[in-house]
């Protein structure tokens, strides 16, 4: 690329030095403590794509007559969502003349935040717009523009909890783009067959119903049939599941908003003990290694009565070839003593404060969060909108009858992971939590031992104080 040139231009040299720094740091992280989350090839592939983009950006000779090209660094997603996003970006270019290069990041959430942070630490002028997992604002807030001055009307129209999830110290780090929540999927045909008129209201109900349906289906020769599948591998998915179990019982959020470490309490311990009892009884022994796709594969093969998953599983369950197509329905997760809650998830869109094209980047965020695009996404992909008003539209309710539940859940039934209160320590907090829960599920520790050890580890990690969770029906300020 540089043959015939005796020296780099300052622009080329800056880009080259940036690339080398990212490459060195990511390679060190892959060989170091982050290696336990994945093998190196899974992260190196998207890293190489990003490096190639930055290299081309650094070597390009910008022209005043050339249209602006933005880089959007995003998540790996399903084929259907990827294709729809490409159509949206093409339409954006047609409307504005601004081109967009989409760069997929690593598959793992922790791999993505590692790459995002290393890119932003370099001060690289691209990418311009980043997909922002709902658990990242507290970790990455310093690198992005405050979107509140640009989107005040749009933010006020969203679900309050949705907007709050992307707000750190009154700074709106990202605009919510794809809200998500944990839900219960159930075989409506099997519930009717076994005499149940509604899905389980409580976790106790789920255990009873799952055991009975499992026994009945196995008596018919379906030896691989299970009552309940979920995500039990030692990763962020388990944090989401276990937080739902304990919050439903009034066991708190691991760390409360006032920085109280509340996880070591009897309600949490009982919730963990109950889940450990599922393993090998109503859930397969291998569930302690299940990630999202593992549980979904069992479900769409027709080998489970119930499944905990995200809203995205609705499309996969209804896809051609799914053994549960037109046989299932969706409900809120079962209740405990404190009610029913689902962990809040999803993605937002953030604008890098280092971007060379902030005006155009803000325009892209405004476009992708526009009402008409949310309506289309909901129709085509069953993607939940960020705007409460859209859930009442007949054209969305008809293909998405579960939207009625989602509208209720996003208002009153979500639990937020303690990511913003933990800030840059959240990665350590979550790992300590899911490792503790996993040790209980795998039978390596008792729930009381794991909770006590976790409490001590979180005190060392964060410096926060110990304390009880808020009384049921209340919340700390």
Which helices and strands appear, and what pairs or packs with what?
Elements: H1 10-31, H2 40-59, E1 69-74, H3 79-96, E2 99-104, H4 109-121, E3 129-133, H5 137-140, H6 148-156, H7 160-165, E4 167-168, E5 171-172, E6 175-181, E7 183-187, H8 188-193, H9 203-219, E8 226-229, H10 236-248, E9 260-261, H11 266-278, H12 292-300, E10 304-309, H13 313-318, E11 328-331, E12 342-351, H14 358-368, H15 371-381, H16 394-397, H17 403-412, E13 414-415, H18 419-422, H19 426-441, H20 447-462, E14 465-466
Parallel strand pairs: 1-2, 1-3, 8-10, 9-14, 12-13
Antiparallel strand pairs: 3-12, 4-5, 6-12, 7-10, 7-11
Instruction: Name the CATH superfamily assignment of the largest domain.
Output: Periplasmic binding protein-like II
Shape: globular
The count of helical stretches stands at: 20
Query: What level of helicity do the residues show?
Result: 40-55%
Mean pLDDT: 88
* CATH topology label of the largest domain: D-Maltodextrin-Binding Protein, domain 2
Radius of gyration, CA atoms, in whole angstroms: 23 Å
* CATH-scheme architecture of the largest domain: 3-Layer(aba) Sandwich
Strand content: 5-15%
Q: In this structure, how is the largest beta sheet organized? A: 6 strands, mixed
- Residue stretches low in confidence (pLDDT < 50, at least 5 long) are 1-19, 25-44
Structural class: alpha/beta
Q: Count the strands?
A: 14
Oligomer: single chain
CATH class of the largest domain: Alpha Beta
Task: Describe the protein.
The chain has 477 residues and is α/β, with parallel strands linked by helices. The chain has helices at residues 10-31, 40-59, 79-96, 109-121, 137-140, 148-156, 160-165, 188-193, 203-219, 236-248, 266-278, 292-300, 313-318, 358-368, 371-381, 394-397, 403-412, 419-422, 426-441, 447-462; strands at residues 69-74, 99-104, 129-133, 167-168, 171-172, 175-181, 183-187, 226-229, 260-261, 304-309, 328-331, 342-351, 414-415, 465-466. Strands 1, 2, 3, 6, 12 and 13 form a 6-stranded mixed beta sheet that branches. Helix 10 crosses helix 11 (266-278). The chain starts with 9 loop residues before the first helix and ends in an 11-residue tail after the last strand. Residues 1-19 and 25-44 have low confidence and may be disordered.
């Amino acid at each position: 690329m540089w043959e015939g040139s005796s020296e780099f231009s300052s622009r080329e040299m800056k880009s080259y030095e940036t690339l080398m720094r990212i490459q060195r740091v990511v390679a060190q992280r892959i060989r170091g403590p982050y290696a336990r989350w994945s093998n190196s090839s899974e992260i190196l592939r998207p890293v190489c794509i990003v490096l190639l983009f930055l290299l081309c950006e650094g070597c390009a000779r910008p022209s005043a007559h050339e249209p602006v090209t933005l880089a959007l660094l995003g998540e790996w997603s399903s084929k259907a969502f990827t294709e729809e996003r490409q159509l949206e970006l093409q339409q954006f270019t047609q409307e504005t003349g601004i081109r967009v290069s989409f760069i997929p990041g690593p598959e793992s959430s922790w791999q993505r935040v590692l790459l995002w942070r290393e890119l932003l630490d370099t001060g690289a002028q691209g990418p311009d717009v980043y997909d922002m997992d709902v658990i990242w604002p507290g970790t990455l807030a310093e690198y992005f523009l405050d979107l509140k001055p640009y989107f005040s009307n749009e933010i006020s129209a969203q679900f309050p909890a949705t907007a709050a999830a992307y707000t750190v110290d009154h700074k709106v780090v990202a605009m919510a783009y794809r809200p998500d929540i944990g839900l219960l999927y159930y075989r409506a045909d099997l519930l009717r067959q076994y005499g149940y008129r509604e899905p389980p209201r409580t976790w106790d109900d789920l255990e009873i119903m799952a055991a009975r349906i499992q026994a009945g289906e196995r008596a018919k020769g379906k030896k691989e049939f299970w009552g309940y599948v979920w995500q039990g591998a030692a990763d962020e998915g388990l944090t989401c599941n276990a937080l739902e179990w304990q919050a439903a019982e009034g066991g708190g959020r691991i760390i409360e908003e006032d920085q109280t470490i509340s996880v070591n309490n009897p309600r949490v311990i009982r919730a963990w003990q109950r889940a450990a009892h599922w393993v090998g009884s109503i859930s397969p022994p291998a569930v302690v290694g299940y990630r999202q796709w593992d549980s979904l594969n069992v479900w769409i093969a027709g080998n489970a009565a119930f499944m905990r998953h995200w809203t995205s599983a609705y499309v996969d369950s209804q896809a051609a070839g799914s053994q549960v197509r037109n046989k299932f329905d969706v409900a809120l997760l079962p209740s405990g003593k404190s009610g029913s809650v689902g962990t809040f998830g999803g993605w937002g869109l953030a604008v890098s404060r280092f971007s060379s094209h902030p005006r155009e980047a803000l325009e892209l965020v405004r476009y992708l969060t526009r009402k008409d695009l949310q309506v289309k996404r909901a129709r085509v992909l069953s993607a939940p909108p960020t705007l409460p008003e859209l859930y009442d539209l007949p054209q969305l309710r008809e293909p998405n009858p579960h939207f009625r539940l989602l509208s209720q859940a996003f208002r009153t039934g979500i639990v937020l992971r303690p990511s913003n209160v933990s800030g840059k320590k959240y990665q350590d907090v979550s790992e300590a939590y899911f490792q503790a829960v996993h040790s209980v599920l795998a039978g390596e520790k008792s729930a009381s031992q794991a909770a006590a050890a976790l409490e001590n580890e979180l005190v060392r990690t964060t410096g926060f104080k110990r304390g009880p969770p808020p009384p049921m029906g209340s919340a700390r300020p």
